[in-house]
Structures are given as structure tokens and as C-alpha cells.
Amino acid sequence: MESESATERPDRTFHPHQSPAALVLALVLVACAVAFGIFGHSIAGRLSMGGGTPLAEFVSLIGGMRGNAMLNCLQKGDEPDVHPEEARGIVQRSLRRSASIPDLTEHGFALRQVVDVPTTPAQGGTLACVTYQGTGASEGRWIHLFLARDDGQYLRFDSLGRPRPLAPGLSIDGELPGQTPSEPAVVIVWSDGPVLHAACFDDAADADRLHEAVGAP
């Protein structure tokens, strides 16, 4: 079917018409969008209280644990390094789930210790913290790998503020307070389904270089 051109029908003028009902509906939708933008995250947070933990809260929790893990490791400096298979057994007993523990020796980080970190049920229950200490050119830097049982309770928020579980195969990068405000630490969070992983690095360069080495997708 051929469309009519403007030269063929010069007298045809389009006059948009808005019904009162449509105008009211549009105003209501705008008001709802504004209200959700203001209260959406707090509403989603309240919804998650019944069966979920926002990932932001989990990251904040482990961010405060990094210093204690490092000090605990330094206090036990005479103890031998932990083999990845030994670490895997400790984590499995702690979480009652199997988890892969990376060997970062070739990347300049020795596996120094594995400890259990008890938390409240709302914070995810028991966590396992695997600590790596830099050697050689990486001396003075640390990597902390936190692991927790994942039953879909850890939630991220989409662009509309809706809570969503962290799907396997997806990783999220973020910042943590560092030694100085100008040099924030970096955390990479991902889930393989049964276990949630969060690898904390002292700087962004190590995070970029070891992203795949720690097992992050």
C-alpha cells in the first residue's frame, strides 16, 4: 500500500488529543517513579530482610575484616604456608560445601592462612577468610578471599532498585577503603552457585592482573 504524501493531502493536519484519564494516569506514573527513586532501595532492603542480604552490606562487612585478618597473619609469621588443597579442606569443613582455592604462588602471593569468621545469620553466617601475603615484587600487598554459603540470599539491585540474586558467571567490581583515600582497595564479588566469593586486593593493578587467577568470571 502506497503512503499518502504531504503534497497530495496538504489540508491534513495532525492534532494530538489527550484525554483527561490519560493525563491523570501519566501524572500518577510520574509520581510513582519519583517516589520509587527516593524510597526504592530502602523498600528493597526491607523486602530482603525476610530472606536476603544486600551485597553492599556483605562487602561492607568483609571490608572491615581485612585489617584483622592481616594482623592475625603477621602475628603468626613463623607458621608455614598453607597448601591450597589443605585450605580447600578447611573451607569445605567450615562451609560444608566444596570450593576451589587458587594457588597464587606464581603471581607473587603466598597462601598464609585460612580462618573461620563467625557472623550473624542475617550477615550470612560463618565465612571463611583465605589470606595471601605478597612476596618478592609484591611484598607489602595482601589478598583476602572471603567465601560464604550461597543459597541465593545475597542480593544486588538493578537499575530500578529491584533485588536480584547474583547469578553464576557474573562478577561485580567495587571499591573498599584503602590505606589512603587516594588509593582505595578493590573487591571482586562473584558466585559459582553454591559459594559466594569476594576477593579483596590492595590496589586496582593487582585486581586487574589477577582477576582470572582468583577464579572470577
Assign a percent range to the helix content: 25-40%
Order of helices and strands: HEHHHEEEEEEEEH
Number of helices: 5
Unreliable spans are 1-18, 28-50
By secondary-structure content and strand pairing, the structural class works out as alpha+beta
Q: How are the strands of the biggest sheet laid out side by side?
A: 2-3-4-9-8-7
Q: Main β-sheet, in a few words?
A: 6 strands, antiparallel
The number of domains:
2
How far the N terminus sits from the C terminus, by CA atoms, comes to: 52 Å
Q: What proportion of the residues form beta strands (DSSP E)?
A: 25-35%
Residue-averaged pLDDT, rounded?
79
* Molecular shape: globular
Radius of gyration, Cα only, in angstroms?
A: 25 Å
> Can you count the beta strands?
9
Brief digest:
With 217 residues, the protein is of the alpha+beta class.
Describe the structure.
This protein has 217 residues and is of the alpha+beta class. The protein folds into two domains: 33 residues; 158 residues, no CATH class. The chain has five helices and nine strands, in the order H-E-H-H-H-E-E-E-E-E-E-E-E-H. Strand 5 and strand 6 form a beta hairpin. It is globular, with a radius of gyration of 25 Å. It starts with 19 loop residues before the first helix and ends in an 8-residue tail after the last helix.
